[in-house]
Amino acid sequence: MKEKSGGLLELQCFYGGSKGDEVATVDLMKSGQLDGVAVSSVGLARLHKPALALQMPGLFTTWAKLDAARDALAGELETGLRNAGAGLVGWYDVGMVSVLSRGFPVRAPANLKGKKPWLWRDDPVVKAFYQRIGGVTPVSRSVLEVLPRLSTSAVDAVLQSPLAVEQLQWASKLDTITDLVVGPGVGAIVLAQKRLDALPGDLRSVVLDTGKIAAAALKNRIRTEDAAALARLKTKMTVVSLTAEERGWWNARFKETRQLLAQGTFSPVLVARLESMA
Predict the structure, then answer these.
(1) In order of start, what are the domains of the chain with their CATH numbers?
(2) What is the pLDDT of residues 169-217, one digit of tens each?
(3) How many CB atoms lie within 10 A of CB 135?
(4) What sign does the CA torsion over 20, 25, 28, 32 have?
(5) CA Rg, the chain, in Å?
(6) Are 45 and 52 in contact (CB under 8 A)?
């Protein structure tokens, strides 16, 4: 971007949560203290909640299905983000979500009853899933608060992508992984629409064109590395292989979760539309 703009534009990036969690960084962008953010589910929900519907469990268990659905919704998702003050640079993903635990196998959703699974604050999808299981009291914490709680067993299960589990250093605190794809973890790179609109047209094009290339490269790299992370975890952890009946139990809870989400979190029309795409 710096090269193509003749040195007129340059990125300064803040890593490792140094500006706070996703909700904090989105709020900083809205207030003009940051020009943009890279967000996953919770950040997207803060900007345009319907984008989070792509993460509903049991729907898009392959990247091809996710890509097709996201392409079909592209126009309305970009408009929704723009109305929230965020210009879309590009989509990316954080991996396919698995069920990981410590000290016990998770063969069925009911195995989480009485346990201490992590719930990312402000994540309505996973919250609805735990509500449908019943008897689950999740531990609601930000991402940065999970590792110390895994170390003390204050958290004993997570729904997260293998790559994220490795990168966040959670893997050594977990010992069991269920052979099940819950759904994708989606994300996006966005810039403040006001900041984009303030740029001359040629510079705005440089930002968006190079950003699109970067986001596509990031998406492809993460997908490859997530698959490799899953393979590594399966060599280090106990793998719970599900029977057809057990997969049916998961699918039933996933469907009930989507029905619950259609009662207020997302529109019934959107949920039905995404189910038809899956």
Answers:
(1) 22-277 (3.40.190.170)
(2) 999 999 999 999 999 999 999 999 999 999 999 999 999 999 999 999 9
(3) 10
(4) positive
(5) 19
(6) yes
